[in-house]
Amino acid sequence: MSTNPFGFTTWGADLVRIAEPITARTPNTHAPRARSLARNGGVTLQFDGGRVTALVHSGASASVAHLEFAAMAPAVATALRDELGSRTEPDDAIHAALIAAGLRPAPVLEAADCSCTARSTMCVHVLAAAYALATLVDHEPVTALTIQSYGAAGPAEGAAPDRPTPRWTPSPHCRCGTTTRCPPRPERRRAPSPHARDRNPGRPRAPLRRGRIRRPRACARRHRR
Fold first, then answer.
1. What is the pLDDT of residue 107?
2. Beta strands in 83-130 (DSSP E)
3. What number of other Cβ atoms are within 10 A of residue 212's Cβ?
4. Which of 56, 98, 91, 59 is nearest to 77 (CA)?
5. Helix residue ranges, H only, the chain
6. Cβ-count burial of 126 within 10 angstroms (0-12 exposed, 13-18 middle, 19+ buried)?
7. What mean pLDDT is predicted for residues 196-221?
8. Exposure check for the chain: N or C terminus, fewer CB within 10 A?
């Protein structure tokens, strides 16, 4: 009997439930393709606390998927710390003990985004990232704690809250070089040329110069005939 390559541990099964929620009435049509990408090594994962960036290669194209997980609840972190003791790697027994205590150690996906043009949030690249993450958690269950910011130091008392990273990036031609958008420069208005066409119908036009109209030589000979 073949072993399921995704979620054969309870910690990895929690990640599979993100790609395959139990409440879904119909299966996701992108799931087979996503599992194939994750199984064949088409997903590269990068971690930054609770943020996971996945570079997904599908044929000749590549997309970047971002998954952001919520921080672990304080009650779950306290109970997990008591269950772990001196160990650093959780196992299925610890997961079962937390569930029996009425706690939820499963990671919670707060936001997901992808650089592809799919209209659905759970596109094939986000699903492939979830399956690849489940495979990694099966072999290294501590990853399930890392993406939930378990053991991360909280902000110090009296410290200012972190400001969100501005989405606007200063350009090299910016006058101030800061992360704030420069004020718009005042528009320079040029004096209207006397030969330009008058665009304001209410403005009085300059008097036309009267005189003999000079025609080209060929045109003048034609008029003489």
1. 93
2. 109-114
3. 5
4. 98
5. 10-19, 31-39, 74-84, 92-100, 124-139, 142-146, 217-224
6. buried
7. 58
8. N
